[in-house]
Amino acid sequence: MLKFIRKVLNTGKVTVAYPAEPLPVDANFRGKPEYQPEQCIACGACANACPSNALTMATDSEKGVIRWQLFLGRCIFCARCEEVCPTAAIRLSRQFELAVWRKEDLFERADFKLCYCRQCHKPYAAQKEIDYTLALLEISGEQQGYYQRQLETCPACKQQQNLTQADRIDIGRHLTREVNR
What we know:
Layout: H1 2-11, E1 33-35, H2 45-49, E2 55-60, E3 65-71, H3 80-84, E4 90-92, E5 107-116, E6 123-126, H4 127-140, H5 144-151, H6 155-161, H7 172-175
Antiparallel strand pairs: 1-4, 2-3, 3-5, 5-6
Helix pairs in contact: 4-5
């Protein structure tokens, strides 16, 4: 018995004093997603990539907004949202203490103004996404006026007015085969 007590005393601490002291977390730990709505363009890439449907995007035409929403109760901390976000608006933190008193506290929301089509005046995208694309075009030195007309037109109206420039695409030469061989 004395051998056992001596061995225990020589071994030292094997557990951590977690509630009293912060728990050390690895640098690659995937914890709570931290979202920065001012950096988000509401493109919906994160909602499309989320396998657990913890991230959703819903359009409210009456209020004129697109609502981005994260429900931490469904999140599996896979980091797909972080991988696909073009503006790095969502990052997984090392925070793992997510207990809350009310279920409503597990929701995180952000609303973004809708962009309306120039022709039919129906909402089709977030205004912030269109502005971001136009800013990228300005940086690259492209003609903003021509692209602005295209970007501010919904896909249905583009198809009706032939703004997609389908005449530039020549797929016919790829479909023909030599028959006389």
